């Protein structure tokens, strides 16, 4: 179903203001190109990422509840988060506030002390950038708007962990045709195929990049990332399409680290799906922030005639 | 009698006498190999309850040992000693000394949630791993692990300002773990970015280190959060029978 989500609240999150800025830039550029309105949450706060939950899970729930209450205050019933971490945490907060009394109690207490409305579950729907494109414009809409087809570009679609796991926080997934699958996600595949890309059969779509320990246990992360990269290459992919700033930065960082530390060089490129989609819609590489990526995909982009 | 699956037994539990005669029969060498008896008498009966009292560990009692977590585990695939199913078993049995053999790898859980996805009993093994790592640290069995140093630096920034700045987290982490910032791979990464010279991006990152990103009007939330964190820390210590400084009561 398309035509939904024409105007939604936008929660970029910290990563998109820092190392993942290319994702922020390309998401906004794609939205503008497609005539979709994004209104940034006022005074949003960090969702706690993969860290605050290790201090206390209920505190992490509060951090997301605060953001959801802002969306509600601004009169939105939908908030779009492109970052898997933010998206996951908003979804998890929604689930915990609906099902866990102690989480509700902590949220109420902290919200009233902090002086803002207490978010009640069910008021705001959280969606990912993939849901946003898929249900607003859809594949047919993209096909009609493609100016610069991704034809001949072989893409491995990589979704990571937080977009599908654990299943219970995503009640709208696994509901049959047209809905997203938690075991074999396909929204990004469909969006990029509509833009002309040739998707390879990538078996590690939901494997882990070790992002949570990208720095604190970098040897583990390098092994996990190297596996993702070499498998993408073995599948014949030119580029890995990402939809999470932690995965994206992790892949770029550990691609370099694998070469420096293990002497294993890989040449597969890494781009956000919004960058690929944006270029297919006729945006210049600069407009989708290709220069802000750590890895250099420009030679490939020129070779495929996308620049 | 020779033991066929020696690889399954820890070397220190295998006993062999070079020269041994029993009732006139020479059983020297591998003829006298036997497995040391392992009688466990030092069960820690509080361990499960203590771990269940820490955030994430609440559902450990639900486990019925199917092994779906270990089967799905990302870290287990690169290190077979990383075994959530087994650790949950040890905790539930109170076999502390066995658990302590693996005390230095439990923190390595990458939170990919494959275990929690696969678990048919809603144990939340990912949370149990974090609670266990936390327990080991609070009880003084391990020093503060790199992931906890990272989590604390990160969380502290969130609590203080409402947001984080990647560069500061990076610098604080390397400082906290006594590592130089000039990791060769990090240098190569930054050089690669500089070559493309994304001026606006560099300016943006530069500004972020000076004018730290923050959520405006965060003060009351900060105070509420800090008070709550203190409350959680106190209740964790109490559940583990520790006094305020962390020593066992």
Overview of the structural elements:
- The complex is a heterodimer of chains A (307) and B (249).
- Chain A is of the alpha/beta class and 307 residues long.
- Chain A has helices at 21-34, 57-73, 84-99, 101-114, 129-136, 138-145, 187-194, 218-234, 245-262, 273-280, 298-303, and strands spanning 7-10, 37-40, 78-81, 125-128, 154-157, 198-199, 239-242, 269-272.
- Chain A folds into two domains: 7-127, Glutathione S-transferase Yfyf (Class Pi), Chain A, domain 2 (Up-down Bundle), CATH 1.20.1050.140; 139-303, Rossmann fold, CATH 3.40.50.11810.
- In chain A, strands 2-1-3-4 form a four-stranded parallel sheet. In chain A, strands 6-5-7-8 form a four-stranded parallel sheet, with helices on both faces.
- In chain A, α1 (21-34) packs parallel to α10 and α3 (84-99) packs across α4 (101-114).
- Chain B is mostly helical.
- Chain B has a two-stranded antiparallel ribbon with strand order 1-4. In chain B, strands 2-3 form a two-stranded antiparallel ribbon.
- The interface between A and B is large, with 66 and 66 residues.
Please specify the SSE layout and strand pairing:
The complex is a heterodimer of chains A (307) and B (249).
Chain A: E1 7-10, H1 21-34, E2 37-40, H2 57-73, E3 78-81, H3 84-99, H4 101-114, E4 125-128, H5 129-136, H6 138-145, E5 154-157, H7 187-194, E6 198-199, H8 218-234, E7 239-242, H9 245-262, E8 269-272, H10 273-280, H11 298-303
Parallel strand pairs in A: 1-2, 1-3, 3-4, 5-6, 5-7, 7-8
Chain B: E1 14-15, E2 21-22, E3 25-26, E4 34-35, H1 47-52, H2 68-72, H3 74-78, H4 84-93, H5 96-100, H6 114-118, H7 125-138, H8 146-161, H9 166-176, H10 184-196, H11 199-210, H12 219-239
Antiparallel strand pairs in B: 1-4, 2-3
């Amino acid at each position: 179903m398309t035509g939904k989500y024409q105007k939604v609240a936008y929660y970029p999150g910290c990563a998109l203001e820092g190392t993942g800025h290319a994702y922020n830039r390309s998401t906004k550029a794609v939205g503008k190109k497609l005539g979709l309105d994004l209104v940034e949450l006022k005074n949003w706060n960090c969702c706690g990422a993969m860290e605050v939950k290790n201090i206390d899970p209920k505190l992490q729930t509060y951090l997301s509840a605060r953001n959801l209450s802002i969306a509600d205050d601004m009169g939105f019933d939908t908030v779009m988060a492109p970052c898997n971490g933010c998206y996951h945490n908003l979804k998890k907060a929604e689930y915990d506030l609906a099902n866990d009394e102690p989480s509700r109690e902590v949220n109420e207490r902290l919200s009233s002390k902090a002086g803002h409305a207490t978010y009640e579950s069910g008021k705001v729907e959280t969606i990912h950038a993939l849901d946003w494109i898929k249900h607003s414009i859809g594949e047919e809409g993209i096909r009609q708007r493609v100016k610069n087809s991704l034809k001949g570009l072989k893409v491995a679609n990589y979704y990571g962990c937080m977009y599908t796991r654990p299943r219970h926080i995503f009640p709208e997934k696994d509901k049959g045709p047209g809905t997203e699958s938690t075991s074999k996600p396909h929204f990004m595949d469909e969006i990029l195929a509509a833009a002309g890309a040739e998707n390879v059969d990538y078996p590690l779509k939901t494997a882990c990049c070790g992002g949570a320990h990208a720095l604190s246990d970098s040897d583990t992360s390098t092994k996990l990332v190297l596996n993702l990269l070499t498998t993408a290459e073995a599948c014949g992919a030119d580029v890995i399409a990402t939809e999470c700033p932690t995965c994206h930065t992790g892949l770029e960082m550990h691609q370099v680290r694998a070469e420096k530390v293990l002497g294993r060089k890989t040449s597969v490129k890494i781009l956000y799906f919004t960058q690929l989609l944006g270029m297919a819609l006729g945006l210049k590489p600069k407009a989708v922030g290709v220069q802000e990526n750590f890895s250099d995909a420009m030679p490939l982009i020129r070779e495929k005639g996308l620049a | 009698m020779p033991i066929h699956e020696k690889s399954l037994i820890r070397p220190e539990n295998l006993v062999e006498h070079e020269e041994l005669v029993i009732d006139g029969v020479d059983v020297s060498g591998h003829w006298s190999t036997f497995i040391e008896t392992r009688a466990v008498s030092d069960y820690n009966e509080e361990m499960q309850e203590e771990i269940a009292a820490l955030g994430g560990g609440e559902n450990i009692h639900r486990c019925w040992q199917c092994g779906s977590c270990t089967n799905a585990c990302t870290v287990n695939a690169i290190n077979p000693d990383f075994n959530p199913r087994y650790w949950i078993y040890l905790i539930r049995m109170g076999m502390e000394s066995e658990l302590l053999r693996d005390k230095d790898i439990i923190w390595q859980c990458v939170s990919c949630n494959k275990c929690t996805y696969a678990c048919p009993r809603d144990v939340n093994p990912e949370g149990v791993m974090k609670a266990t790592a936390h327990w080991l640290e609070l009880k003084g069995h391990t020093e503060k692990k790199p992931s906890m140093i990272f989590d604390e630096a990160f969380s502290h920034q969130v609590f203080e300002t409402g947001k984080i700045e990647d560069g500061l987290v990076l610098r604080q982490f390397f400082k906290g773990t006594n590592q130089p910032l000039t990791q060769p791979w990090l240098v190569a990464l930054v050089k690669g970015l500089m070559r493309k010279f994304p001026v606006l991006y560099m300016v943006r990152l530069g500004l972020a280190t000076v004018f730290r990103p923050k959520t405006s009007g965060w003060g009351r939330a900060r105070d509420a959060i800090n008070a709550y964190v203190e409350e959680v820390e106190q209740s964790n210590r109490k559940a583990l029978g520790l006094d305020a400084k962390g020593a066992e009561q």
